[in-house]
Design a protein that fits this description.
The chain has helices spanning 27-37, 77-86, 96-113, 120-137, 142-270, 274-302, 308-366, 375-379, 387-390, 396-414, 444-465, 471-483, 487-500, 505-514, 520-527, 531-540, 550-560, 566-578, 603-626, 634-644, 650-661, 676-683; strands spanning 7-8, 49-50, 55-56, 66-67, 91-92, 417-418, 437-438, 547-548, 587-588, 631-632, 674-675. It is mainly α and 697 residues long. The model is unreliable at 1-90 (pLDDT under 50).
Length: 697
């Protein structure tokens, strides 16, 4: 609606009162405000309605005293002509109801402005009240105004919800900003330190440059002084040379005069003509002078010239000397590199010597007398019937394992039931049972056969699923499928039997995998280290006779294990020879990979596994030597891995780091430092080995 235009409204009909949204002020409070400020009643607009024509005053918003320009329809022009001419220049003041609303709004806003802290919600409340009064008094427009007000209220509520949902993002943004500021500060401090170091280096270099400049000036002064002295010496020698030449010429002249006088006397005695002799003498002197000049010219021109033969000989000598110098320089560079490598080796040897010395000191302090194992025969005669064959060639630590295995096996056979370990989260998954479990008293060959079945089935299912499942969960599920209610009897019996079999490495390692003390990858690598070798030997045996010559066997060992030393290859060859008959010329390789019913392998496989364990131990020792602190961070262990094994790939490195610090890959940056002892306990359970280089045979 344009300002200054009177609009004809239709007759007002009674309407039902629409439902309004709840306001922050109650109806009673609004009535009190109406009483206090004496607001006009809803019929306040009636004073501005012309009953003759049905028009309502639309007073302009910019002030009172403005002329109202009336606009009517053409059909009503004759009826309103007299009225329009009577009020053409009339002025209308601001409506009283509008003045009261504005006065109320000003008072409310002034009361709010007097407070120190006023929110936007409080400032919006007086406008809401005025809008409610306005809707109550203009009932014709009340539904439209109520809809407008409701839509604005819904929009405001939606905006508040969005703001409230963004508050956590704001807090997170603040924390991220603080973390970034902290990192920026650390980088700035590090760069500041580097800048200071570079500044100090710059100052030292500037001082060195100043020193060199001073030395240059001093040397230039010395050169100038020597040049002056050389000029004086040259002048002195030149003068002496000139004086010597003059003296020689005078001496020669005197000699000539004396000789002329002697010749004249002789001629006088012989009767020759003196005039002829004088002319001959003059011509001879002239020829002598020309000859002397030519001789001096030749000396001046060819004084520094040498014969071509001497020049070519000198060139040959020079080329030989240059070639010899280049060879010597190459030898010197090679010697320098070798010397540097020898220094590094010497440093490593010194470190190893120091560590060995410390170990020797520790062993000397903690050593005890070697036990006399024969004392146990009288106490446990039934156990030590096989002692002679079990104890042959074993150390004290291995003999302790033998003793514990025999005692544990004897105690295990005497048990009828195993107590249930409960169903708590701290109990291994395959032992979660509350009631006592019967001891099946399995033999070792039965235990080993069941272990082989479990591994075979698990390997097949893991390949189908494409991921590695947990061994305890798989084992109990497999036993439940196979034995039903007796599954826990098998699980407990297998667990305790594998636990006490310390001398049977393959069975006891199964227990370690169950308890999480060894990764499955390490188990596969340790007990299947011979599979690649057997595959190579079978492929090389074109006749399928099961035998190869010793030279073929040695070359295939080198191809299958390129990182092994010559001594280790020879040890494997000797072990294979020891398992052959004396009259066999070839090596029957299939017999080298046999094992008994209890899982005990041949001597050849034992040597392979021992070398595998020695390589892992050496790898761990190299890692330990690279770590200097007592508590190790992930980045320090990563640097040690890259230093020991530069060819390691990023995926394998992240896997090793995650397993060592018992966190996921994304949590490595937040991982806490671990003590060296605890860290290497975790690392010993991983399949740590350097990558084998490929060798073509």
């Amino acid at each position: 609606m344009e300002p200054g235009v009177v609009t004809v409204l239709p007759p007002l009909l009674p309407r039902t009162r629409p439902q309004f949204p709840a306001l922050s002020t109650s109806r009673s409070d609004q009535e009190d405000l109406s009483n206090v400020y004496a607001f006009a009643q809803p019929n306040i607009n009636k004073t501005l309605v012309n009953s003759a024509i049905g028009n309502i005053s639309t007073w302009p918003a910019n002030g009172a005293g403005q002329t109202i320009i009336q606009k009517h329809k053409p059909c009503a022009e004759s009826d309103t002509r007299s009225a329009r001419s009577g009020r053409e220049n009339a002025t209308v003041s601001k409506p009283r109801y509008l003045e009261k609303l504005e006065s109320y709004l000003r008072r409310e806003l002034q009361s709010l402005d007097s407070a120190k802290i006023v929110s936007q919600e409080l400032r919006l409340q007086p406008y809401r009240d005025v809008f409610d009064y306005f809707m109550e008094d203009f009932k014709t427009y009340k539904p439209l105004l109520c809809a407008i007000k409701n839509e604005y209220e819904v929009t405001l509520a939606h905006q508040r919800e969005q703001i409230r949902s963004l508050e956590p993002l704001k807090a997170m943004l603040v924390s991220i900003s603080e973390r970034c500021d902290k990192k920026i500060q650390e980088i700035y401090e590090k760069e500041t330190h580097e800048v200071k170091t570079l500044h100090m280096e710059k100052l030292s270099l500037l001082q060195m440059i100043d020193t060199l400049k001073e030395e240059k000036i001093t040397l230039q002064a010395q050169v100038s002084k020597l040049q002056e002295e050389m000029e004086k010496t040259y002048l002195m020698y030149r003068n002496e040379c000139d004086a010597r030449k003059l003296l020689i010429s005078d001496i020669n002249e005197l000699k000539h005069q004396q000789e002329d006088h002697r010749l004249s006397q002789d001629h006088k005695e012989q009767g020759e003509d003196p005039v002829t002799l004088a002319v001959a003498l003059r011509m001879a002197r002239s020829d002598l002078t020309k000859t002397q000049v030519l001789l001096n010219t030749l000396k001046a021109d060819y004084g520094d010239v040498v014969p071509r033969r001497d020049f070519e000989n000198q060139e040959k000598n020079l080329a030989a000397c240059v070639e010899k110098i280049e060879i010597l320089q190459k030898d010197l560079s090679q010697l320098q590199r070798e010397h540097k490598s020898l220094l590094e080796i010497n440093q490593e040897v010194v470190q190893q010597r120091d560590s060995f010395c410390r170990e020797v000191d520790d062993l000397q302090r903690s050593r005890t007398p070697r036990p006399v194992w024969e004392k146990c025969v009288d106490i446990f005669p039934e156990i030590f019937q096989r002692w002679s064959e079990l104890s042959e060639g074993k150390s004290s630590d291995q003999l302790v394992d033998v003793l514990l295995t025999e005692l544990g096996t004897k105690v295990l056979k005497e048990k009828d039931f195993f107590p249930g370990m409960g169903v708590g989260n701290n109990v291994p998954f395959h032992l979660r049972h509350e009631r006592p479990v019967k001891n099946l008293r399995l033999k070792l060959k039965e235990v080993y056969s069941m272990i082989k079945e479990i591994w075979k089935e698990k390997f097949s299912i893991d390949q189908q699923k494409g991921r590695q499942s947990s061994l305890p969960e798989f084992m109990i599920n497999y036993l439940q499928k196979k034995f039903g209610e007796a599954s826990f009897e098998w699980s407990y019996t297998l667990h305790h039997t594998c636990r006490v079999q310390l001398i049977n490495e393959q069975i006891h390692s199964f227990y370690k995998v169950l308890m999480g003390q060894m990764d499955e990858d390490l188990y596969y690598a340790l007990f299947h280290v011979h599979k690649n070798l057997l595959k190579e030997l079978t492929m090389a045996d074109s006749s399928n006779a099961g035998s190869l010559t010793r030279e073929q066997f040695r070359l295939l060992l080198r191809k299958a294990f390129p990182s092994k030393s010559s001594d280790e290859i020879q040890e494997l060859v000797d072990s294979a020879d020891s398992q052959q008959k004396p009259d066999d010329e070839n090596i029957h390789y299939k017999s080298l990979f046999s094992e008994d019913e209890e899982g005990n392998p041949s001597h050849f496989i034992v040597i392979l596994r021992n070398q595998f364990s020695a390589e892992r131990k050496q790898y761990l020792n190299e890692l330990r030597s690279k770590l200097r602190n007592n508590h190790i961070k992930p980045e320090e262990l990563k640097a040690a891995f890259l230093s020991v094994d530069p060819a390691i790939d990023d995926k394998t490195l992240d896997k090793f780091l995650s397993r060592a610090f018992q966190v996921t890959k994304d949590q490595l940056e937040l991982a806490k430092p671990l003590p060296v002892k605890q860290l290497f306990q975790y690392l010993e359970a991983i399949n740590l080995r350097k990558r084998e280089p490929t060798v073509q045979v």
